[in-house]
C-alpha cells in the first residue's frame, strides 16, 4: 500500500462541519452545538481530542467543561496581569530547571 492509499483511508478532521460554541451564545445553544460537534467528530471516524474537549453528550458534563475552561482562562489572565506588574529586575524560575531536593548537587 502506498502512502497516498493509506492517507486516503485515514479519517479526516471535519473542521468545516464544526459549529462555533463560544461564550457569545446562550448556554443551551452552546451545549447543543457542542453535542453536534461531538457527533460530527465521531461520525468522521476521528477520535475526540480529550486533551481539548470532553468526549460526552451529557449536557451537565458539557456545562461543567465550559465552566472549568472559563475558570482556567480567568486564572491565566489574572496570573499574566500579576506578572506584568512585577519589577523588570524580578527573575522568575524557569519551568525547565528542577528546584528542591531532587536537584543533583554534584
Describe this structure in words.
The structure is a single chain. With 106 residues, this protein is mainly α. The chain has three helices and no strands.
Give a short summary of the structure:
The protein is mainly α and 106 residues long. 48% of the residues lie in helices and 0% in strands.
Using DSSP, what is the number of strands?
0
**SSE succession:** HHH
Calculate Rg over CA atoms.
21 Å
So how many helices?
A: 3
N- to C-terminal separation? 53 Å
Average pLDDT taken over every residue: 87
Spans of at least 5 consecutive residues with low confidence: none
Class inferred from helices and paired strands? mainly alpha
Approximate strand percentage: under 5%
What is the helix content? Answer: 40-55%
Could you say which overall geometry the principal axes of the C-alpha atoms support? extended
| Biggest sheet details | none
